[in-house]
Design brief:
CATH topology of the largest domain: pyruvate-formate lyase- activating enzyme
Number of domains: 3
Structural class: alpha/beta
Radius of gyration: 24 Å
CATH superfamily of the largest domain: tm_1862 like domain
GO molecular function, one term: 4 iron, 4 sulfur cluster binding
Keywords: 4Fe-4S, Cytoplasm, Iron, Iron-sulfur, Metal-binding, S-adenosyl-L-methionine, Transferase, tRNA processing
CATH class of the largest domain: Alpha Beta
Distance between the termini: 53 Å
CATH architecture of the largest domain: Alpha-Beta Horseshoe
Pfam family, one: Radical_SAM
EC number: 2.8.4.5
Family: Belongs to the methylthiotransferase family. MtaB subfamily.
Strand content: 15-25%
Length: 479
């Protein structure tokens, strides 16, 4: 006999609902509402999804960040001083939505500057990067204790265990799902504050990753993107070494090997791999996995050996080009995206020209250009030879243009080839579907047959032929 669910004020009460949530429904006649704001990287976005799911399971309702809410959670970024400023702005903005709300601030800015965050008017809870999974409990504790301000921060050197936030069951995207597999970084690039914000390297249990992937694939997601603070460091701890199919597996291969065996219509993409960790030989071992998209994000940061050394990047341009050559020898259409910083302290005009040169040599399909921003707490902040703003602006403009030319050349190379596109949306104003090819080109597909039920065409793999350059990508025709 099925047990009848309890219903209070017209709301069905699930077994997972917390006592506090049930009391709130009784008192207010509605669910306690929560709004979130995420700043920064894909890892933060993933973690916010995990936070929201925990609150949903406890009986809370998710509302938009612009709406009135009982609880606001701001997941902050601190990669630059500008990111700190944006975080502060959103904290104040969201509190104004409801002066009586609970405001909880988490993420990298909260970890690095807890005292500064605590002093912002209206902040009730401050948590570090390894306390996000506890937020629902901390919010309810605060609502009962009525304390003015509570701070939960652990020193980054003591953060040694991966915080499992549970299996994600949904994403805002309907087609592509991120899975966090790793946390922390021990590379300590001279410009980067993130190791101090995220702590030591910790890898997520392989079975939890596989279980999450299975769940998301069953829900219909067609592309699984493995991400982390430094994805290439996954599984490098000794206890993560596995043996499978009569050979030893290390690092991210542990996960790729399991995903390769799974059933379902899906593909795998890596969010990034750091040349500080991997080399051409390691990349060669990844090429055997059929589900893995022929696209890697390889952050070079500079084309100059002098600047790479000053950045503490632990590789040189020749080693980077070895990786590129390995990929392109395997597949001339292999997509490579990158990040480059201009105006790093001490960067000469010759150093900058080296960056322009490597963009020309590699043929990237996308170059993300960043102007160096001084970040207190990093070694680079105290270096000599800081570049004038007008020089950084000029170099940034020049490199952005070079990046566009590089992408166009790569797109041109692909004309006439056949590709697989995961259809993500329909653009009414353009009369075409759009999505990404396996090698990460933005693809536009004209709706020549005037497909009536366009919803059924979405989230499908479509075989296309590349016809020409179009907008920020390529125009394709269905085969």
């Amino acid at each position: 006999m099925t047990k009848e669910k309890q219903c209070i004020n017209g709301i069905e009460i699930e077994e997972t609902y917390s006592r506090f949530a049930i009391d709130f429904i009784k008192t207010h006649g509605r669910k306690n509402s929560i709004a979130t704001k995420t700043l920064g990287c894909k890892v933060n976005q993933y973690e916010t999804e995990a936070i929201k799911e925990k609150f949903i399971h406890r009986g809370y309702e998710i509302v938009n960040e612009e709406d009135f809410a009982d609880v606001y959670i701001i997941n902050t970024c601190t990669v630059t001083s500008l990111a700190d400023k944006k975080s502060r702005q959103y904290i104040r903005r969201m509190k104004k939505m409801n002066e009586a709300s609970i405001v909880a601030v988490t993420g990298c800015y909260a970890q690095i500057s807890p005292e500064e965050v605590s002093q912002i008017e209206g902040v009730n809870i401050v948590t570090g990067t390894n306390q996000k999974g506890r937020l629902v409990e901390l919010v309810e504790q605060h609502l009962e204790s009525k304390k003015e301000n509570e701070c939960y921060i652990q020193d980054y050197e003591l953060i040694n265990e991966y915080e499992e936030t549970g299996i994600i069951t949904s994403m805002e995207s309907r087609t592509r799902a991120y899975i966090k597999i790793q946390e922390g970084c021990n590379r300590f690039c001279s410009y980067c504050i993130i190791p101090y914000a995220r702590g030591n390297v910790r890898s997520r249990a392989a079975q939890d990753i596989i279980d999450e992937a299975k769940n998301l694939i069953e829900k219909g997601f067609k592309e699984i993107i493995l991400t982390g603070i430094n994805t290439a460091l996954y599984g490098m701890e000794a206890e993560f070494n596995h043996s499978s199919d009569n050979r030893s597996l290390i690092g991210i291969e542990i996960i790729l090997n399991e995903l390769e065996k799974m059933e379902g219509d899906f593909r795998i993409r890596l969010s990034s791999l750091e040349p500080t960790v991997i080399n051409a030989a390691y990349v060669q071992s990844l090429l055997q996995y059929k589900r893995l998209c022929p696209h890697l994000h390889l952050s070079i940061q500079s084309g100059s050996d002098n600047i790479l050394k000053a950045m503490n990047r632990r590789y040189n341009r020749a080693e980077y080009l070895d990786i590129v050559n390995t990929l392109r020898k395997f597949n001339p259409y292999y997509g490579i995206t990158t990040d480059i910083i201009v105006g790093f302290p001490g960067e000469s005009e010759e150093d900058f020209r080296d960056s322009l040169d490597i963009v020309d040599k590699v043929g990237f399909c996308k170059v993300h250009v960043f102007k160096y921003s001084k970040r207190q707490g990093t070694k680079a902040a105290d270096m000599k030879g800081h570049v004038a703003p007008e020089v950084k602006n000029r170099r940034s403009d020049e490199l952005i243009q070079a990046g566009k030319q590089s992408a166009d050349s790569f797109f041109q190379l692909n004309i006439g080839s056949e590709k697989t596109v995961l259809v993500e949306e329909y653009l009414q104003d353009r009369g075409c579907f759009t999505g990404y090819t396996e090698n990460y080109m933005k693809a536009y597909i004209k709706d020549e047959q005037d497909i009536l039920n366009r919803e059924e065409f979405l989230n499908k793999f479509v075989q296309v032929k590349v016809e020409k350059l179009y907008l920020d990508g390529i125009l394709c025709k269905i085969i």
